[in-house]
Please model this.
Amino acid sequence: MPTAPPPGPADPWRAAAVGLLNLSGLGLGYALVRQWGLMIACWAATAILLLVALPADPNGVPGAMVVFYLVFLLLAAAHGAYMGLRTRMTWPPKAPIAAVLGLALLALPVGGAVLYDEARDEAIEQMLLDRLGRADRLVNAAAEEPFETSEADFRRALAVYHGLTDDHPDSRAAERVPDRLQNFYTTVAFPYADKSYCAAVAPLKYLRTVPRTMSKKELGTLSTWPDDRLATSLHECGAASLSGGSADWTAQFAELLTTFPESEQAGKVEPAVKAEIGKAVKSLGGEEPCAAVQRLESLGADARRLPVEQAGLTDAIDKDADRAERSASSGTYNCGVDQYQDGSFSEAVTTMKTFAEDNPNNRNRARAQKIAIAAEVAETVPAAGKRLPTTASGGSISVTVKNDSPDNITVLYTGPVTGSFTLTACGSCTTYSSLTSTLIGFEPCSDTSKNYPQRTIRLPAGTTYFVHKSKDSDGKTPASDTAKLSSGYIYTECAYTTSFGY
Model:
């Protein structure tokens, strides 16, 4: 018995029907002509495609697989049409009906492709939403760290947001980016909300760079969101540094004045500097006048370095700096008094001499000169510095001071009155050895054959301390004497110099 109907005449409709039915991917055309093995081969190819394609992946089916499957379907259709051209069908009874059925079944691969595209689009949306979620978690985690260590994470998260809006503008993830950017800005600038203004400067400066990577259309009002906050942070941080004595205030105020010269915050710079100078001026009368002088000198110099031209603060800042410098100069007197009373006689000498030179018309100049003399005496005789000298002069007791030295001698004295004068050198005199001056019976100015340069001064009763210093003091130490003066006597004081090893 034959296993298949004998070949019939060529039937184009039958060929078309078998070919169309094979295009469905199910091999139904082969079923009509009883080619079961080939039908199973079609099922296997379709099954492999489904295994590769499902579940839908954002990357879709590999291109080579799609090409292979399409080529396979075309070959199956062509081969089925060839076989159906002369092979009879047992069902359906008429070839046109089978052809119509083949056309209808083409809806399966077409519909499947459409559904797959929809599934792939949804997979892409989920992928983008996952990417958005990872960026959100990155922002939230970075918020727990100092900005210096978290800046890189913030930048990575921002790159994700930018990529979503730039590469996938119509996605659901991109639609959520504006809300995420608002959260991003507030998270990065959290120190500002926490009123940690110095810590807020760096993150706010970073946020001002974001418009370089994202368009203003994407950012909206966020493009200028950091400006006022950064100006406020620079002012508040600078003001805190200024009042706290830190040197950082000039850098913070300078950045404020150059970046936001017309801002309200820039207008507050000069009042802050003025107030700090006023506070330092008041401190001149306090317990640390020398520190106040140094503070005023620093404030004046730093104020002049501020870039105030753009903000229109030049005249006001110059007046403040002038006040600081004048107050520092006049306040040097209080500093010198404090040094003297603390026993820092060397510093007091320098301070009072500087004050007298820089303030020729100051009412304290005369006393400052007296204090400088007394401090210089106290460097050699510390007991001389127990009392602060006055500007008193003269007295009832005559004291003649002679110079038994080959050098010009400066005589300094302090006690009830303070002063100094110079005696010219004694041409026939010599410098005494420091050992000789300690011997019992040592009597300078005792050679009656010498004409000692001398000067007579009048002093009050009491203890007066003398120091004699060579004006050419190279290797020569000052000599000193303590005289207890009483009324009714005439005193002679001898000035001489000693040198070790003579």
Notes: The chain has a mean pLDDT of 83. The two ends are 153 Å apart (CA to CA). The beta strands are 397-403, 409-414, 419-423, 432-433, 454-459, 462-470, 479-485, 490-495, 498-499. The CA atoms of residues 347 and 411 lie 20 Å apart.
